[in-house]
């Protein structure tokens, strides 16, 4: 039982402050009753070239590096000496918690001959380069060089791994790879990862798909009935969503069918049991809530047609999400990524000059408009389309 769309629809929220939980429930119930959903003012045509062009890809990496991007959960580097190393926007980064609990983001590149000093995640009293054994303190300062007599010009006391900007906010570690001037605000993320959830580890895989195609799979509910027939559709509404944007980011809310039953709409955890929030943190991170879990998905671009998908999970320790729901989320995501692979495969067939995003897909339009603005490439839309403006 999908919900046929009506012409009378409530517009997409454009204020910086996200709707309260109670108002979210009220608005979604209104949509269900009226058979409406949030609509963008116009449609959007994204050129197929943008998913295939190497020069465009390099420019996008520069945008990622110039943005404060969630790197990992704070809980993944909670203990003194814990570290997590991975590439971010194609460059090696390691995040380390020092003995005083302070967090450091460092370029994972040894000052000797440039080897990576850390690999994966773990705990260590210091970072020791595996090549020749240069030892770095947890804050990145060089501590010891084996047989230092070989480096008479080296000022050990003033040598350190290159430092990046890092900060923690609402349970997430953010890393900014270029100098940051204005601290970004992420008040909207308060209460997403609460103390009710415990960090439960990470997983990763690679997809032969441009990173933006994967971002797009998370940002609309127009495909619930068709793609997720046996996974999400039995428990969620098709094409009933709230779409809100805050700064360069957005939040798309997907109601479960049990949202129509009576419950305490002032209780955030009760609300959490009735809907999914998808926070798109520009450019390449998603924070997704389910009744018993929160998932952070990082779409790390490897090449124009390849993406590493890193997934960090928090679970409710009471076991609320350790049963069927776990398989459901993984299966639903697999359905999204399978169709994304077909999209990438078809891009260079020449069949389409543009991908066509409709009024239900407003969060994707916001993503492309924001990315265009960051790239300084705001484009006129094709004549047959109404430009994707916001009210
Ligand atoms: S490259 Fe790190 S110690 Fe030589
Ligand atoms: Fe999906």
Structure description:
The protein has helices spanning 21-34, 54-65, 211-217, 224-227, 268-272, 324-347, 362-375, and strands at residues 44-47, 69-73, 82-88, 91-97, 103-107, 121-123, 127-128, 135-136, 142-144, 163-169, 172-176, 198-207, 242-246, 249-255, 275-281, 285-290, 293-303, 306-315, 354-357. With 391 residues, the chain is an alpha+beta fold. The protein is globular and about 80 Å long. The protein is built from seven helices and 19 strands. The strands form four sheets. It has a seven-stranded antiparallel sheet with strand order 2-11-10-5-4-3-6, with no helix packed on it. Strands 12-18-17-16-15-14-13 form a seven-stranded antiparallel sheet, with helices on both faces. It has a three-stranded antiparallel sheet with strand order 7-8-9, with no helix packed on it. Bound molecules: FE2/S2 (inorganic) cluster and fe (ii) ion (FE2). FE2/S2 (inorganic) cluster binds next to loops.
Oligomer: single chain
Query: Secondary-structure element sequence?
Result: HEHEEEEEEEEEEEHHEEHEEEEHEH
Q: Please state the CA-atom Rg, rounded to the nearest Å.
A: 22 Å
- The main sheet orders its strands as 2-11-10-5-4-3-6
Question: What's the gist of this structure?
Answer:
The protein is α+β, with helices and mostly antiparallel strands and 391 residues long. The chain is built from seven helices and 19 strands. It is globular.
């Amino acid at each position: 039982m999908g919900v046929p769309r009506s012409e009378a629809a409530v517009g997409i929220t454009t204020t910086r402050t996200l709707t309260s939980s109670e108002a979210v429930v009220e608005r979604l119930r209104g949509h269900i009753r009226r058979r409406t959903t949030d609509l963008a003012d116009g449609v959007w045509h994204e050129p197929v070239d943008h998913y295939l062009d190497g020069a465009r890809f390099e420019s996008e990496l520069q945008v990622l590096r110039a943005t404060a991007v969630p790197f990992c959960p704070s809980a993944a580097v909670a203990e003194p000496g814990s570290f997590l190393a991975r590439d971010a926007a194609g460059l090696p980064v390691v995040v380390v918690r020092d003995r005083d609990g302070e967090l450091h983001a460092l370029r994972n590149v040894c000052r000797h001959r440039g080897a990576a000093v850390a690999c994966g995640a773990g705990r260590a009293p210091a970072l020791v380069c595996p090549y020749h054994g240069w030892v770095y303190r947890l804050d990145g300062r060089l501590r010891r060089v084996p047989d230092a007599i070989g480096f008479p010009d080296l000022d050990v006391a003033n040598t350190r791994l290159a430092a990046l900007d890092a900060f923690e906010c609402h349970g997430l570690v953010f890393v900014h790879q270029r100098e940051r001037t204005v601290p970004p605000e992420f008040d909207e993320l308060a209460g997403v990862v609460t103390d009710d959830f415990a960090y439960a580890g990470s997983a990763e895989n690679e997809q032969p798909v441009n990173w933006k195609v994967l971002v797009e799979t998370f940002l609309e509910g127009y495909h619930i009935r068709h793609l997720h027939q046996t996974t999400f559709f039995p428990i969620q509404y098709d094409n009933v969503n709230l779409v809100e944007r805050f700064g360069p980011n957005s939040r798309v809310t997907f109601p479960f069918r049990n949202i129509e039953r009576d419950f305490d709409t002032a209780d955030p955890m009760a609300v959490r049991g009735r809907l999914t929030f998808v926070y798109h943190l520009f450019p390449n991170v998603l924070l997704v809530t389910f009744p018993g879990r929160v998932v952070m998905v990082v779409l790390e671009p490897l090449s124009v047609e390849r993406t590493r998908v890193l997934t960090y999970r928090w679970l409710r320790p009471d076991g609320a999400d350790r049963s069927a729901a776990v398989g459901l989320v993984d299966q639903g995501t697999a359905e999204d990524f399978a169709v994304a692979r077909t999209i990438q495969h078809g891009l260079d067939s020449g069949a389409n000059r543009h991908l066509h995003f409709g009024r239900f897909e407003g969060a994707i339009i916001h993503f492309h408009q924001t990315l265009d603005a960051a790239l300084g490439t705001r484009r006129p839309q094709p004549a047959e389309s109404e430009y994707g403006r916001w009210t």
